[in-house]
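Technical note accompanying the year-one report. For the benefit of new consortium partners, we illustrate the data format agreed upon in the data management plan: each record pairs a sequence with a structure-token string. No post-processing was applied to the example shown here.
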Amino acid sequence: MVSGCFCVILVTTLRFCEGQDRSPASEEFELTINTMTDLHRDGLRPLEFGLLAGREEFSGDQVEYATKAVENGGTAIGIRCKDGVVLAVEKIITSKLLKPGTNKRIATVDKHIGVVSSGLVPDGRHFVSRARDEASSWRRFVKGPIPTSVIAGRLGSYVQMYTLYSSVRPFGVTTIIGGWDAEDELPVDGQVGSGPKIGAGGKEEGLRSGGPGLYMIEPSGLYWGYYGAATGKGRQVAKGELEKLNLQNGTLSLLDGVKEAARIIYVAHDDSKDKDFELEMTWISGKDGPTQGRHEEVPAKLREEAEKIAEKAAKKALEGEDEDDGAANGDEMEE
């Protein structure tokens, strides 16, 4: 019925155009009608064409706006250590009436996965809700915890979908996902007999899967695996500090990672000269570690100790910058 009505309207419109002057507007309209005819023949409805027509320019602009919202958010980082993952974020204190310890910016998606985001807080909460739905659905159908790489891929696709249609806008958050996948020994391929010692049908002794995983998802839906990730206002300074840790060597322990995460957040915050903030940190370890494979908050005593060390390091870094600036100004005056 809809197809027939569309054809009648289309033929009537074309006949009307044939009896009019060939102005540029009418030619453009006829071109649009011809395009709609081709789309209709291919199975797309005119409404779908309307959604697709203006997306080339619209999508890029909206993603840029979302990225700017992230750049104005608090600094968030993730560190992949040899025995776990650390997530940290600076929560800017916008009012003295805010209760400390509330308004969490790091959330638990599943027992073994945590998420931290920078940008628009409501968008981050919706992202967490979707991530929990994905993890719950995986447990219901697969009867096990969802791998960190799988949930990162699914959420990346979900975020990218919000850049395709004019009726929605992109997410105004960049999200860092950290998790620990169970280190189970890889099973025999196919589970048929003992098979050869290695190769197809068999397995290699001692080969295991799982371990720590760290991913970052941008507003465009692009996601990558990282050893160390940073986003937010102080991301450039934080990235520089993360690169100095040589995380790809796999020598940084989880306890040292907590101290380094606190230090990096303090250094990045001092660089932005922003308001007071509250440090929030969580960590995930293996079954033999302090969290036993769960995503948990860093104990208050350990966090406070890490903050004290971070404050001293940030002050030294700031004093060093002031001395360098003073020396440079003195040289200019002598010249």
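Partners are asked to follow this layout when depositing records. Residues 1-33, 35-58 have pLDDT under 50 and may be disordered.
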